[in-house]
Design goal:
This protein is an alpha+beta fold. The protein folds into two domains: about 270 residues, no CATH class; about 90 residues, no CATH class. About 25% of the residues lie in helices and about 35% in strands. The strands form four sheets. Strands 14, 15, 16, 17, 18, 19, 20 and 21 form an eight-stranded antiparallel beta sheet that branches. Strand 15 and strand 16 form a beta hairpin.
Amino acid sequence: MPSEHPQPTCVRVAVSRASSAEVAAQEAAAQIKISETCFVLCFVPDGLDCQGVAVALDKALHGVPVFGCSTAGQITRQGYETEALLLLAFPKSHFRCSSVLFEPMNPLSSTKIAAQAQRTEQRFQHTAGWHRLGLIFTDGLSKQEDILMSTLETVLNDLPIFGGSAGDGLSFEKTFVLHKGRAVNDAAVLLLLETDLPFQGVGFDHFLPAGSHIIVTDADPEERKVFEINGAPAAREYARLVGSTVEDLSPEIFAENPLLIQHNDNHYVRAISDADEDGALSFLAAIDDGLIMTLGLGQEITNTLKTGLDIRDQRGRSPDFILGFDCVLRKLEIEQKQLGRAVSSILSDARVFGFNTYGEQHCGVHMNQTLVGVAFFGPEERSFY
């Protein structure tokens, strides 16, 4: 395991690895200074009951608001974990927060979400000299993140929003978001934050476009399913392009050979979750007929991770901590290549805390196989929280 590093001064990190939801919640909550806390982010491992965690935390923290989601893994002081209940307590001395729960996600009403978001933003009074950002946690199986982010980008266009889609290990069965004592399926939570801390957005992957254009010739956009690529059955054509057989297609092959789309001069990953018996490919982000893609050529993942996390502010300081949302498909590739220990050490060194997602949200775009987040820097005067 990576060695212990100094605690961040601007957020309190609490962890429990207990197998009972109530015990884990109580153990983690006991590590938090309730009177000093504005709100808590909670990232729940696959083995714990989310509703049990939400209720137990609400009781243990005496009503301090808790937000978060179920996860496909956690990022703690030790780097990657799979069985850790992770709490991040944000202090009143540096943060203010307002929240809104969007439900249901499917079907999604852009008009309703836009009105809710605008109303929440207007009622959230500005603090002089403080800066704003948004955090978003969504049902990772709703297939609505693209529309949600496009809507929020339109109505909150001066607010940077970062987030991740909830996971449930790798079962792809049911995911939850947490909002004030509840674990809710088919929903999303938007947090509006104000902080006096300097911060920078983080967003990077480790793929470059390679090869010729690949065209989606038959798709079901609502289900994010592609039936044909380049006029041929999708799974068969994809297998041919990556040098595999249809029978050998697996999550590991999908993770190492994603498809990329171009948007605003940037390339974003459109990750494949599985191939069904009929030869169709299911994707984890928006897909449509006529969409032009290219294969992604992977770069060395530890080098890109070190570079992406080598962040400095205007004074040359490294972050006090980084809130990170890291795609589970990146973790899958890392484990396949037996790089878990090395990557955990890099994450620990950079003081990254967060979770493994089913998708990431940044700059109004829903994407895959990306590490997205926010780097928070210490204040001018040292905090002793």
